[in-house]
């Protein structure tokens, strides 16, 4: 078990408690704004620009190269997130525990994104995208840990709702920026520059948690491997919460990763209008999110309930995915995007609050959240790798999306097994 590997220097007494300290707006509003910036930088390449870039440099094997790039990038993200979280938990110095990782990850991530945008080599593209995912996920690990560091349990539903809303608003903001430019290079670099600047500005301004005593022992191999695991027998609620997130993200990612090709090949959207069509889809998706997420986060805090909201959100999200899969036209896809957004908005609003409520301990917040974030990164590796086979087996992108909906139903079943929260 990862927590059993902790040394005395890693105990809670080594860390200054900071819940409720500093300017509350830096955590209730500033942190979601920073998350918005981070995903403005990271999402446009995943949703649109990467597919178009791959079509430019590997026109004969677009689906295969895209799957390889996204899969390797997601695997890199899966490895980087918990490791960065572990190191963040042990980072001492006047700059704080989280700030160095937020700034360093963002700067390196943007540099790698520039390489992705300007290369004409498939190998360089894949490697640089992997580096970008490592760097930006180091930022995600540290930024996510700010919530349990500073936000009280009674406020987590609202803050989680704002974080989820910020991530999904970045879908619209990013794809809106993308459609303003005609080349894949500018479609990556401009959103990346704007989003990265927002994150760095937040990191400079917020009051970070500071480690009082430097850890006296070095991380051994066992502890490093322990960064990727927790004991689901000792902490079953965290295990079921992990599985719920894994299944729901996998379901959603089936549509996200291949939406561009689905619109082009099945719906008949021409290349010139693809970026705008994806923008319309993400816009309606976020409309659904906005209408549900903030209300769901507030109600979840008010009623003290998490599981019910997650289960209902999952059902609505799955219905939206089925509508997209069976869509005969772009207008039906937009309806499906709206319905899926309404469901996933509630899910992301409450799921993070549920997870922070079942974290095993306070001294390893970033590491444990990093392990949980594997549940978000792993599907992004598995889904692209499995996609060509599933698409061939099920007869096309629609069958692929239906398969994702089935996985989403399994996620809904998982949340019912959590016992420690209502």
Automatic annotation (TrEMBL):
Write out the entry's keywords from A to Z.
Membrane, Transmembrane, Transmembrane helix
| SUPFAM superfamilies according to UniProt | MFS general substrate transporter
InterPro entries reported in the protein's UniProt record: MFS_dom, MFS_trans_sf, Sugar_transporter_CS
Identify a single GO molecular function assigned to this protein. transmembrane transporter activity
Any idea where this protein resides?
Cell membrane
Q: Which Gene3D superfamilies match?
A: MFS general substrate transporter like domains
Q: Where is the Major facilitator superfamily (MFS) profile domain?
A: 25-422
In the UniProt record, which is one GO cellular component term? plasma membrane
The membrane topology term of the UniProt record is: Multi-pass membrane protein
**What sections of the protein cross the membrane?**
29-51, 63-80, 101-120, 126-147, 159-182, 188-206, 242-263, 283-301, 308-326, 338-359, 397-416
Keyword Membrane included in the entry's annotation: yes
Q: What is this protein called?
A: MFS family permease
Q: Which organism is it from?
A: Curtobacterium luteum
Record lineage: Bacteria, Bacillati, Actinomycetota, Actinomycetes, Micrococcales
């Amino acid at each position: 078990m990862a927590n059993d590997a902790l040394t005395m220097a890693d105990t809670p007494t080594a860390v200054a408690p900071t819940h409720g300290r500093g300017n509350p707006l830096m955590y209730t509003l500033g942190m979601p704004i920073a998350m918005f910036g981070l995903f403005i930088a990271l999402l446009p390449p995943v949703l649109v620009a990467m597919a178009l870039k791959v079509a430019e440099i590997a026109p004969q094997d677009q689906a295969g190269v895209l799957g390889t790039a996204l899969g390797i990038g997601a695997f890199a993200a899966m490895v980087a997130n918990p490791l960065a979280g572990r190191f963040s938990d042990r980072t001492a110095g006047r700059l704080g525990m989280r700030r160095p990782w937020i700034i360093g990850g963002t700067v390196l991530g943007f540099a790698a994104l520039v390489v992705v945008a300007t290369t004409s080599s498939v190998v360089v593209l894949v490697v640089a995208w992997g580096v970008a995912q490592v760097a930006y996920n180091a930022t995600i690990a540290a930024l996510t840990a700010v919530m349990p560091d500073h936000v009280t349990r009674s406020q987590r539903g609202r803050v989680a709702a704002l974080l989820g809303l910020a991530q999904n608003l970045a879908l619209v903001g990013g794809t809106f920026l993308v459609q303003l430019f005609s080349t894949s290079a500018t479609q990556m670099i401009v959103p990346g520059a704007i989003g990265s600047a927002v994150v760095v500005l937040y990191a400079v301004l917020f009051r970070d948690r500071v480690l009082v005593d430097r850890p006296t022992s070095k991380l051994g191999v066992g502890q490093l491997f322990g960064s990727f695991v927790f004991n689901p027998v000792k902490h079953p609620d965290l295990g079921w919460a992990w599985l719920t997130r894994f299944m729901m993200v996998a379901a959603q990612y089936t549509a996200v990763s291949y939406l561009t090709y689905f619109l082009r090949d099945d719906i008949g959207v021409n290349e010139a209008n693809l970026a705008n069509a994806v923008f319309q889809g993400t816009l309606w998706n976020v409309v659904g999110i906005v209408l549900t997420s903030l209300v769901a986060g507030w109600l979840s805090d008010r009623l003290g309930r998490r599981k019910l909201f997650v289960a209902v959100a999952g059902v609505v999200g799955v219905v939206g995915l089925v509508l997209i899969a069976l869509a005969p036209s772009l207008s039906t896809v937009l309806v499906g995007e709206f319905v899926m957004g309404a469901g996933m908005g509630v899910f992301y609003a409450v799921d993070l609050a549920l997870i922070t409520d079942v974290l095993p301990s306070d001294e390893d917040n970033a590491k444990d959240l990093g392990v949980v974030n594997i549940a978000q990164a792993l599907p992004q590796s598995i889904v692209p790798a499995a996609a060509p086979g599933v698409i061939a087996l099920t007869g096309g992108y629609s069958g692929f999306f239906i398969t994702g909906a089935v996985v989403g139903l399994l996620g809904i079943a998982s949340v019912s097994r959590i016992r420690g929260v209502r």
